[in-house]
Design goal:
Blueprint: E1 5-9, H1 14-25, E2 29-34, E3 47-50, E4 69-72, H2 87-114, E5 118-123, H3 127-130, H4 136-156, E6 160-167, H5 182-190, H6 200-211, E7 222-225
Parallel strand pairs: 1-2, 1-4, 2-3, 4-5, 5-6, 6-7
Helix pairs in contact: 1-6, 2-4
Length: 234
């Protein structure tokens, strides 16, 4: 079986790093675009492109000639009451979560079309479907990601699949302040029907499935990986 080429935007920490580790274990070629190389030091086979997707222009020459899968992992947890929400913060959330994804797709698209088939995975949040308080900015930006997912899936079919994963709270560096004590962790776990917060691998395993040929008949979907929060009431 020939090696495949995957690009992971924001793949040096958290869920992105989890995806990189899973794909690398299969012997495929991984290119990571991120601001830092924090978690990549032990993955010698990974090519790193240092860039901030909100500020820097990524060149197609920095990416493989064919791309079988693109994961866009940057995200934000900008929480707070609407009375204190600044337009600048909302624009930053939108720039990072939506505009950055489109820019990376545009750069990657020729190489994705060069592959026999390709897949893109983006990330939303359970807060879009559940209307959680204090989540106005991030839920608005991630709601746009869900709309973008469906639009791109329609436009790029049949050779490029586009899907979105909508996690609940996951134990990543981005969520450190929400899980900074045993009491906070227990309270967050209790909110979920499965009585725990998510792990990186809970999310990365599904992302790997969707990126690879195992998810070859799935497109245009927003899939909740949220401990039952979006669908179950106990």
């Amino acid at each position: 079986m020939s090696q495949k080429n995957y690009v992971v935007i924001g793949g040096s920490r958290g869920i992105g790093l989890g995806i990189v580790e899973r794909l690398a274990s299969s012997g495929d070629n991984i290119t990571v675009v991120s601001r830092t190389v924090v978690g990549l030091s032990e993955l010698s086979s990974v090519v790193h492109v240092q860039a901030d997707v909100t500020k820097d222009k990524i060149s197609a020459s920095q990416l493989p000639d064919s791309i079988h899968g693109l994961a866009y992992c940057p995200g934000s947890i900008n929480l707070g009451p609407v009375r204190g929400l600044k337009p600048e913060a909302m624009l930053m959330d939108y720039e990072l979560n939506v505009v950055g994804a489109v820019k990376c797709l545009q750069t990657s698209l020729p190489a994705m079309k060069a592959a026999d088939s390709s897949s893109m995975v983006m990330f939303s949040t359970v807060a879009v479907s559940q209307g959680l308080p204090m989540h106005a900015s991030v839920a608005a930006a991630k709601g746009a990601v869900e709309g973008l997912t469906r639009s791109l899936a329609a436009e790029l079919a049949p050779n490029i699949r586009v899907n979105c994963i909508a996690p609940s709270l996951t134990d990543t560096p981005l969520a450190e302040r929400l899980l900074s004590s045993d009491q906070k962790r227990a309270a967050m776990a209790e909110r979920h029907p499965l009585k725990r917060v998510g792990t990186v691998d809970d999310i990365a395993s599904l992302a790997e499935f969707l990126l690879t040929d195992r998810g070859s008949w799935i497109t245009g979907q927003v899939i909740g990986v949220d401990g039952g929060m979006s669908t179950i009431r106990l």
